Amino acid sequence: MSHFLSASMLLATLLICAAVTAEPLTGEALYNSDKAPDSMLYDLPREVVPGVWSAIGATAPGTYANSGHNNNLSFVITDEGVLVVNAGDNYLLAKALHDEIKKITDKLVKYVVLENGQGHAMLGSNYWREQGVPVIAHVDAAHEIEEQSFALLEVMQERAKEKAAGTKVVMPDITFEDKKIIELGGEHIELLNLGPAHSPGDIVVWLPEKKLVISGDMAFHQRMLPLFEHTDTAAWIATWDSFAGLGAEVVIPGHGEPTDMATVTTYTRDYLLYLREKIGVVIENGGALQEAYEIDQSPYMHLPTAEFLAKRNAGQIFQSMEFEF
């Protein structure tokens, strides 16, 4: 019990600190900021709860300035080794994360887990492969890597320029479907595919003894979530019940600061419900796509990336919901 209280107290401190910081970065500052100018990392790792660390990425899309570190690169330190969540956007970024891990612990990295098949999760995999570390992914994420990785590599190389050096596409070494359990140094770690969510093969990393979940793109809160053609928002909402059922007290999301379930529920599930309800009214009234673009999303427009995602999200949901009516 005292361990759980410690985790809760640490989270409360994080939330208080977040509350007194400046307003979220927007515009040019959002895209050109860098909290760790001497590292490829956008920001250096911090301990979220005892034994669990995360290097929190920029809330902007990947840019040259942030070196593609626009997602959270987390790791769990145990008595027998380290489990890393996300390989990173490129070879040099993966190396920079590993350099920081080695400053914190002398334990070897034993596993790298990909939260999905997106470029910033998997393109650094060949660095870890060189270190002899197996890379683990869901089978659907592996399929996405097989189909899209070379196109994603080209986009990253164009954006990152010389920072892309050394990056090569490799496939995951280990895949799984619904669940994979890792017992490492007394830590029970569950890799879970709870159902359809943001991207094919989305998983969460659940540490039940710490009541902490590394959610990947299951959960958002400090940037507007993006919707893609393959995103099934109705299924994502249904999957949320299983996610909430874990009973997590601390959430390290795919993007943004560590937080709690109430916060990610507001900006993920509730946002999807809000937009689907508004668009449902448009469709019932015989409205067109243009009316979906004009839906009021002001409760969420303060989020970074909302300025160019809000209309796109509305359009994606409108086009998918047309087939539901």
How would you sum up this structure in a few lines?
By secondary structure, the chain is an alpha/beta fold. It is built from ten helices and twelve strands. The strands form two sheets. A seven-stranded mixed sheet has the order 1-2-3-4-5-6-7.
Number of strands: 12
Oligomer: single chain
**Main sheet: strand order:** 1-2-3-4-5-6-7
Summed over residues and divided by their number, the pLDDT gives a mean of 92
Name given to the CATH homologous superfamily: Ribonuclease Z/Hydroxyacylglutathione hydrolase-like
Strand content: 15-25%
Description:
The chain is of the alpha/beta class. It has one domain (2-260): Ribonuclease Z/Hydroxyacylglutathione hydrolase-like (Metallo-beta-lactamase, Chain A), CATH 3.60.15.10. It contains ten helices and twelve strands. The chain has a seven-stranded mixed β-sheet. A five-stranded mixed β-sheet has the order 8-9-10-11-12. Helix 7 runs antiparallel to helix 8. The radius of gyration is 19 Å and the shape is globular.
Quickly list its features.
10 helices, 325 residues, five-stranded mixed β-sheet, alpha/beta, 39% helix
Topology overview:
Elements: H1 2-19, H2 27-32, E1 46-49, E2 52-55, E3 73-78, E4 81-85, H3 91-104, E5 109-113, H4 119-122, H5 125-130, E6 135-138, H6 139-160, E7 174-176, E8 179-184, E9 187-192, E10 204-207, E11 212-216, H7 233-244, E12 250-253, H8 261-284, H9 289-293, H10 306-321
Parallel strand pairs: 4-5, 5-6, 6-7, 11-12
Antiparallel strand pairs: 1-2, 2-3, 3-4, 8-9, 9-10, 10-11
